[in-house]
Design a protein that fits this description.
Layout (H helix, E strand, L loop, with lengths): L3 E8 L6 H13 E9 L1 H6 L9 H9 L6 E5 L1 H5 L1 H8 L3 E5 L6 H11 L4 E5 L7 H10 L2
Parallel strand pairs: 1-2, 1-4, 2-3, 4-5
Length: 143
């Protein structure tokens, strides 16, 4: 029996790589049903100030094709900013997030809010040495 029933994570997932796969497989190891929310193009351009290589529709297709993912959806800017709104929509038992967020003001607040509704946060480590930003740099340097 797995630790959680419904797990939830979110991300841009542009230029899908082994770090993304490791994260999603680890999430699935901990829950029976994994919901993955893909951040829309508006989030990438407005908040991250980057241009995605693949459109949100393409990224949703890629994530949805993975056997470790049970459900995939886009997520709004409001739901990204306020995780309680994401919980109200998706009704998960656990939010999976990168361990770099642990102890941040935003996640301390989210932990407090989630504790009132019985939702946990599991902080998972990133795969060392691989990131979309680094992949883009390598591609550009090889030109």
């Amino acid at each position: 029996m797995k630790k959680y029933k419904v797990g939830f994570t979110m991300g841009v997932f542009d230029l899908f790589h082994v770090g993304h796969l490791n994260l999603l497989e680890r999430c699935k190891e901990l829950c029976d049903y994994l919901i993955v929310a893909v951040c829309g193009d508006d989030y990438v351009t407005q908040v991250k100030k980057k241009t995605p290589v693949f459109t949100e529709e393409e990224r949703i297709r890629i994530i949805g094709a993975l056997k470790c993912v049970d459900e995939v959806s886009t997520i709004t800017l409001d739901e990204i900013d306020d995780k309680m709104k994401a919980w109200e929509r998706f009704h998960f038992d656990v939010l999976f997030s990168g361990d770099d967020w642990k102890g941040s003001e935003r996640y301390n607040r989210t932990e407090e809010q989630f504790s009132k509704v019985g939702v946990s946060i599991e902080y998972l480590p990133y795969t060392k040495g691989v990131s979309t930003t680094e992949i883009k740099k390598k591609i550009n340097s090889d030109r």
